[in-house]
Specification:
- By secondary structure, the protein is α+β, with helices and mostly antiparallel strands.
- Helix content is 39%, strand content 21%.
- It is built from 16 helices and 16 strands.
- Strand 13 and strand 14 (256-262) form a beta hairpin.
C-alpha cells in the first residue's frame, strides 16, 4: 500500500517586547534567577486585572500580515482552561473563535520546486512558566508566565518531515525580518507542536493524528517527524493504524516519542470570552497602514539578490536569512563597490569570525577595502588582511591599514621587471618547461614573484611581464 504523510504545525514564537503581554514585568527573563520577573498579575493573584500590551499587539499583527494572513477588524480574547503547575492562573488567555488573523500562506523552496503552505490562523496568547524535573521533585519558574506569544497554525499541507522543517525555518526568517520575534530557540523563544498522520495515496480523508509537543529545535522537529513516519507506516502495513488522536512527547536522548495523553479537544478547554479584556478592533485604514509597513520578505530578497545583484544561490540564501546580515550587506553596496565582490568579502572574511558583530567592523570598512582592491591598489589577499585588521581596530580606515602594513600594490614596471628577471633566472628549468609547452609553470613563476614582492606586486602587470619575457 502506498501511503501519504500529512503534517501540520503549530508554531509558538515569543514576541520581542520589553514587557509581558498583560503586565509590566520584564519580558527578557533568559538566564536570570527563577521567579524574579513576576508580579501579582502574571501570578494570577485574586483581583488582579490584565491590560493588553499595545506593542505586543502591533508586533503580532505585523507578523501575521507578513505571513499573508487577513487581519480581522474585530477579534477577542478567550480563557482556555486547563490546570498545570506552570500555569499560575489555572487558565491561559488565548484566542479561540475570533483571532486577530486568518487564511495566510507561506512560500517555501524545495528541490523539486516551490510550494505554498497554507496558514490557518495567527493569534495572540500568553505563555506558561517552566518546569524543571529533578530526582527530588519538580521546580516551578514563573518568569516566563505571561510572556507574549504568537501561535501560528498551519494547514496540513506538508508531505514530508523535510517540508515541515523548511517551513519552520522560513517562518523564523519572516518573523525576524518584520521584527516581531527574534525566534531564538536556544532561549526557548520558538518551539513547535507537530501533528502527523498517514493515509493511502488518493484518499482525501484525514485519519487520526498524533501531536508531538514542545519541539525546541529544527533538528528535533525533523527527527521526531521521521520517527513518527516510520512508526505509523509500520502500523499501517500491519493493518492496525491508530484509531484515536494522541499527544506524545519527544525524548531527545532516546530519539523516540512517548505517549503523554489522549489529544484534547476545544470542549476539554471550556473556552469562554475573557471577561477582563475588551475586544480588539482595527479600522480599514489601520489595516492598510499595517500592510504598508511589511518589508521585503526573505525569499523575495533572495531572488532579487540573484537576479539583480548576480549573487550565487548560496550567497543570496545566506545573506537574506537575517536582518543583521542583509542590512550590513546592503549598506556596504550602497556605499560603493560591486555587490558580488562585497558579498564575497563579507561572507569569506567578516562572517568567518563568529563574533563579528562585536568587532566594530562597518559596511564602510568593507566598501572602502573593496574600492582599494578594484582600483588596483591592493591585492585580494591584502583586502582580506585589511578587513581582519579592521576587526581588531575598527577606529582606523582601510587606507590607513594599507599604508601601515605596506600592502599597496607595486605597479612600477621597472620594479616588476626586476622581480620577474630574478625569478626566471633562479628557475631556468621551469622556463624551459614552459617554452616546451608546459603552461603550468607560469603559475609557479607568478607565485614566486608575488612571494618575492611580499604580495605587493600588481598581479596583472606581473603576468604581463612574465609573458613578455617568455616570448622574447
Amino acid at each position: 500500500m502506498e501511503l501519504e504523510v500529512i503534517i501540520g504545525l503549530e508554531i509558538h514564537a515569543q514576541l520581542s517586547t520589553k514587557t509581558k503581554l498583560f503586565c509590566s514585568c520584564d519580558n527578557d527573563a533568559f538566564g536570570v534567577q527563577p521567579n524574579t520577573r513576576v508580579c501579582p498579575v502574571c501570578m494570577g493573584f485574586p483581583g488582579m486585572l490584565p491590560v493588553l500590551n499595545a506593542e505586543a499587539l502591533r508586533k503580532g499583527v505585523e507578523g501575521a500580515a507578513a505571513l499573508g494572513c487577513t487581519i480581522k477588524p474585530f477579534s477577542k480574547f478567550d480563557r482556555k482552561n486547563y490546570f498545570y503547575p506552570d500555569l499560575p492562573t489555572g487558565y491561559q488567555i488565548s484566542q479561540f473563535d475570533q483571532p486577530i488573523s486568518e487564511h495566510g500562506e507561506v512560500e517555501i523552496e524545495l528541490e523539486g520546486g516551490n510550494k505554498i503552505i497554507g496558514i490557518t490562523r495567527v493569534h495572540l496568547e500568553n505563555d506558561a512558566g517552566k518546569l524543571t524535573h529533578t530526582v527530588n521533585g519538580t521546580l516551578c519558574d514563573y518568569n516566563r508566565a505571561g510572556t507574549p506569544l504568537v501561535e501560528i497554525v498551519t494547514e496540513p499541507d506538508m508531505r514530508s518531515p523535510e517540508e515541515a522543517q523548511t517551513l519552520a525555518k522560513e517562518i523564523q526568517k519572516i518573523l525576524r525580518t518584520v521584527g516581531a520575534s527574534t525566534a531564538d530557540m536556544e532561549k526557548g523563544m520558538m518551539r513547535f507542536d507537530a501533528s502527523i498522520s498517514m493515509r493511502p495515496v488518493g484518499d482525501e480523508k484525514l485519519y487520526p493524528r498524533t501531536e508531538i509537543k514542545n519541539l525546541n529545535s529544527f533538528s528535533a522537529l525533523l527527527k521526531a517527524l521521521k520517527y513518527e513516519v516510520k512508526k505509523q507506516r509500520k502500523a499501517w502495513e500491519a493493518g492496525s493504524p491508530s484509531t484515536q488522536e494522541v499527544t506524545v512527547g519527544w525524548l531527545d536522548d532516546k530519539e523516540e516519542t512517548k505517549l503523554l495523553r489522549d489529544k484534547e479537544s476545544a470542549m476539554d478547554y471550556r473556552y469562554f470570552p475573557e471577561p477582563d479584556l475588551p475586544p480588539v478592533t482595527f479600522t480599514e485604514k489601520e489595516i492598510k497602514d499595517i500592510l504598508a509597513r511589511i518589508p521585503e520578505l526573505p525569499l523575495a530578497k533572495k531572488h532579487r539578490y540573484i537576479n539583480d545583484l548576480k549573487l550565487t544561490d548560496a550567497e543570496a540564501l545566506k545573506i537574506a536569512e537575517s536582518p543583521e546580515l542583509y542590512d550590513f550587506f546592503e549598506s556596504a553596496v550602497d556605499k560603493g563597490g560591486e555587490a558580488r565582490k562585497i558579498a564575497g568579502l563579507f561572507l569569506s572574511v567578516v562572517l568567518a569570525r563568529t563574533d563579528w558583530q562585536k568587532t566594530g567592523i562597518t559596511p564602510q570598512h568593507v566598501s572602502d577595502t573593496l574600492i582599494l582592491q578594484t582600483e588596483g591598489k591592493i591585492s585580494a589577499s591584502a583586502a582580506k588582511e585589511i578587513l581582519n585588521a579592521l576587526m581588531e581596530d575598527s577606529e582606523k580606515t582601510a587606507k590607513e591599514i594599507m599604508e601601515e602594513r605596506g600592502l599597496e600594490q607595486k605597479s612600477d614596471s621597472g620594479e616588476i621587471d626586476a622581480w620577474v628577471d630574478q625569478v626566471m633566472k633562479e628557475n631556468p628549468e621551469v622556463v624551459a618547461d614552459i617554452k616546451a609547452g608546459k603552461d603550468k609553470g607560469i603559475q609557479f613563476l607568478m607565485g614566486q614573484v608575488m612571494k618575492m614582492s611580499r604580495g605587493s606586486a600588481n598581479p596583472p602587470l606581473v603576468m604581463q611581464a612574465i609573458n613578455k619575457k617568455l616570448n622574447t
